[in-house]
Amino acid sequence: MRTKWAVAAATVATAITGAVTAFAPAASAFGPSYCNRSTCDLAAGPSTGTIYFQMPRATPESMICWTDTEWYLGTNRWFKISTVYGTGYTNANEVSNQTSVRHC
């Protein structure tokens, strides 16, 4: 009887793990870069005047390209990124694990 319960418990645990994995966003789908602050800005353009969303910490980001424009948070470098929240720009100091990308 214990064996049946153990098998049943293992089956349920595997099913739950699979379901959670299926609905969790894969970091590799967007890249190894991520938001390194409590919130990171997502902007329509490379400036603070176009910010339309604040992403939560550790949001995976795929870096597309970079440009230098408005100074913000100690740098004028902005990255165009793709995230689960959409595509836009974020300041370079809000991105950890930056990857090499081309100029926009």
Layout: helices, strands, pairs:
Blueprint: H1 2-23, H2 27-30, E1 33-35, E2 39-43, E3 51-56, E4 60-72, E5 75-83, E6 86-91, E7 95-96, E8 102-103
The geometry reads as globular
- How large, in whole angstroms, is the Cα Rg? 19 Å
For the report, how would you describe the main beta sheet?
6 strands, mixed
Find the count of extended strands (DSSP E, 2+ residues). 8
Q: How many helical elements? A: 2
CATH superfamily label:
SH3 Domains
CATH class: Mainly Beta
Indicate the low-confidence ranges by residue numbers: 5-28
* Fraction in helix: 25-40%
Q: Cα distance, first to last residue? A: 64 Å
Order of helices and strands: HHEEEEEEEE
Give a short summary of the structure.
With 104 residues, this protein is α+β, with helices and mostly antiparallel strands. It is 25% helix and 44% strand. The protein has one domain: SH3 type barrels, CATH 2.30.30.40.
General description of the model:
It is a single chain. This protein has helices at 2-23, 27-30, and strands spanning 33-35, 39-43, 51-56, 60-72, 75-83, 86-91, 95-96, 102-103. It has 104 residues and is α+β, with helices and mostly antiparallel strands. It has a single domain (26-103), classed as SH3 Domains (SH3 type barrels), CATH 2.30.30. Strands 1, 4, 5, 6, 7 and 8 form a 6-stranded mixed sheet that branches. A two-stranded antiparallel ribbon has the order 2-3. Strand 2 and strand 3 (51-56) form a beta hairpin. The longest helix is centred in the first third of the chain and has 22 residues, at 2-23. It is globular, with a radius of gyration of 19 Å. Residues 5-28 have low confidence and may be disordered.
